[in-house]
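Support reply, case 0932

Customer input (verbatim):
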Amino acid sequence: MSRSLLFALAAAFVFAAAPAYSAAAPRPAAPAPAAAAITQPANLFAVNGVKIDATADSAINARDLAMAQGRAQAFTKLFRRLTATALWSKQPQLMDAQLQRLVLNVIVNNERRSTTRYLADVGYNFNPNAVRNLLRQSGIAFTETRSRPAIVIPIIGESRLDWMGPWARVWSDASYRQGLVPMILPEADAANLEFLSRTDLIMLDWTGFSPLVRRYNASEIVVAISSQDGKTVQAIEVTPAGRSASSFAYANPNLPGIADAITDKVAEGWKTRASVDYGTRARITADVTFENLEQWAKIRASLGAVRAVSDMEVVGLARNEAEIDLEYFGRIEQLRDALAQQNLTLAISPEGYTLQLRGSTADSTP
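Our regenerated output:
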């Protein structure tokens, strides 16, 4: 890193032009148009479609009982959404009064009632800060960092992908795009039709899927091969680290259930890797390279969107480079993964750390 006299002058200029760092800085621009059109940011702290049903000595008491039962169910779903399976036994056991303080509001649909019974479908919107504080105080590692999407290629038998077939229609449900790992069904346009008409899809490695990876900024590819009767599915996960296969089976045809199981497995891998222990804190110094002030502003905004980053200090600044101190929670590998979700590449070498936008001239990472 240069230490010339121009350093201070350049710093003054860029500080005036670039937005101030903040933990609440806006997230960077949406991904490429193809991906942005089919995936929207999810509210990970909203639990929708909780079915409640309770009976009591009056309609009001039945409603209160049903809503309390729903709060407990919703919190369990939220806890399991944010944590790895190995931690589910450590879920905090909360009284209803404590749960009420965690909920911002509720949305009630399909409400039905009698003099003694109450039924409804309820969405519970939890307070993100309150939930974060509870999990941190309980010493529970969790993640709310969304992975880049996984691309699902649903195939039945030995046929090719049929966008109108029953297996593809299952994956078209928007709920699969709203989790920690958005599960994306490729668009049925000319570019994808040509690529997905290949007969060797199940044999391709990560490099072979590069057209889809680039287009959707994907973290992995899932080739999901269903039996003709819809009872079993083989899922082949392809990542930069290699290929792995899993089998899912039900006694009766249950493609939605199998899709849920595949989604849970992919999310479990991400949660195990990305869950942060907020009791662990560390600091690194990194050299940042950028091509212009616009890129520098994007880097700072992207850093502000990474919750694992607790503090950033600019140590020095020149025309196309900066030196920053980053304080973060968790392990360095988790920080690197979290930065990657914001299209930032953190390179680690014996000489130190370097940071740049993915896809910039300085970024040579494949």
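We compared this against your earlier run and they match. Two observations from our side: The chain has three domains: 6-30+277-357, 33-40+146-274, 46-137. Residues 33-40+146-274 form a domain with the Maf protein fold (CATH 3.90.950). Please reopen the case if you see a mismatch on your end.
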